[in-house]
Design brief:
Blueprint lengths: L4 E4 L10 H12 L7 E6 L15 H11 L5 E6 L6 H5 L1 H8 L3 E3 L5 E6 L2 E6 H5 L2 E5 L1 E5 L3 E3 L1 H4 L6 H7 L7 H12 L4 E11 L7 E11 L2 H11 L8 H8 L7 H10 L16 H11 L2 E3 L9 H5 L5 E3 L3 E3 L9 H5 L5 E3 L2
Parallel strand pairs: 2-3, 2-7, 3-4, 7-10, 8-10
Antiparallel strand pairs: 1-11, 5-6, 8-9, 10-11, 12-15, 13-14
The structure holds iron/sulfur cluster (2 copies).
Organism: Ruminiclostridium papyrosolvens DSM 2782
GO molecular function: 4 iron, 4 sulfur cluster binding; metal ion binding
Protein name: Ferredoxin
Length: 349
């Protein structure tokens, strides 16, 4: 197996004490880190979801990463773009910050700089750009729009929220995969430590079901890490637009032989993982049209705050007694679900 990929299996969040040693060894072997380096640790905190929902990077994985970094004497820049005050508390990250007396950096507070990729100007996080090392700590999940989310998609959060809203207009076409890959290409992380211990199957990225798989994926190549997990849960990777675009644009450090080696040696497949149906072309549009008609707001949870109305890039929500959706305008971007502070938006099962 390619020496930059390390898979640790049979893990449970209740007992990760030994992980710190594994992560430390992996960092020293694969990362040229010096004392006083600024090290961005980019989490996936998509919204105010409790750790057991499997929507966000689990705090115990973050704890192991922090403990591996502390003896290295670097500056730990624990960061993500969060929109709600309560995200840190609900996801369990606030307690961890307190335990280690760390500072949390909300990317939106540190400004953005313009970066041009393939003719599109992105407003990219100045904080991430200022770091010497970037460690991405994503969660592997299903994603109804992009099929899955992991290492590549985790860097999407590094552009301004305003622009993320605007870019959702590319969702319908396969262009969105290109956008995600462009953003990933701006600052390819030095290391990936992907939380795949409990993943999200079903209606990811925020409304699916947790599924224990027990894996931690360490890699110097995010495309390879995503490829590995997507294979593991049984996706036909040749149909995954984000992965195929990343390969086409040569955003991987891996060689075709590395992939073949994984394909041949794959005996651990989680065949019954509840994957999102992967459609391409006109079938994809039909599927999305069907899906967007299943949105509903739980009246008992909705506090009528209007956050979903503000979040919607397509002006598809009107706040009446409860929010109402214009299904023809909706592009199924999931912004409203991710930003609802009470998780009141869901699908009719
Ligand atoms: S659905 Fe959620 S975001 Fe929208 S108004 Fe209700 S509580 Fe607020
Ligand atoms: S209604 Fe929700 S899912 Fe649909 S476009 Fe608006 S924010 Fe996105």
């Amino acid at each position: 197996m390619h020496n930059n990929l390390k898979i640790i299996k049979d893990l449970h969040y209740q007992d990760l004490s030994f992980l710190t040693k594994d992560i430390s060894e992996y960092i020293s072997k694969n990362c040229n880190m010096k004392a006083a380096d600024r090290v961005a640790v980019k989490l996936n905190l998509v919204g105010p979801f409790e750790p057991q929902k499997a929507a966000t990077t689990h705090p115990e994985v973050v704890r192991s990463v922090v403990e591996a970094l502390l003896p290295l004497d670097c500056e730990i820049v624990l960061c993500e773009d969060i929109s709600e005050e309560n995200v840190l508390e609900v996801t369990g990250i606030k307690e961890l910050i307190k335990d280690y007396n760390l500072k949390f950096y909300n990317l939106r507070d540190y400004g953005y700089e313009s970066v041009l990729v393939e003719g599109i100007e992105y407003m990219y996080s100045s904080l991430i750009e200022s770091c010497d090392i970037v460690i991405s700590v994503p969660k592997y999940k299903n994603h109804m729009l992009t099929d899955f989310t992991g290492a590549i998609k985790n860097m999407y959060g590094c552009i301004s929220r305003k622009q993320r809203k605007e870019l959702h207009k590319f969702i319908d076409a396969g262009d969105f995969a290109n956008i995600i890959c462009s953003i990933y290409s701006i600052r390819i992380p030095d290391l990936i430590i992907m939380d795949s211990i409990v993943c999200m199957e079903g209606m990811g990225p925020s409304l699916g079901e947790p599924r224990h798989l027990g894996y931690l994926v360490l890699s110097t190549d995010g495309v390879f890490a995503d490829y590995y997990m997507s294979k593991l849960v049984g996706y036909e990777t040749e149909n995954l637009q984000v992965l195929q675009t990343a390969f086409k644009r040569e955003l991987t450090k891996s060689q075709i032989d590395d992939l073949k080696m994984i394909d041949c040696g794959f005996q651990d497949k989680e065949e019954n993982f509840n994957r999102v149906p992967v459609y391409i072309g006109k079938y994809r549009k039909k599927y999305m049209d069907m899906l967007k008609r299943t949105y509903k707001v739980d009246d008992s949870l909705c506090i009528r705050c209007g956050a979903c109305v503000d979040a919607c890039p397509f002006h598809a929500i009107t706040l009446k007694t409860i929010p109402e959706f214009d299904r023809d305008k909706c592009a199924l971007c999931t912004c409203c679900m991710e930003l609802c502070p009470t998780n009141a938006i869901n699908y009719k099962k």
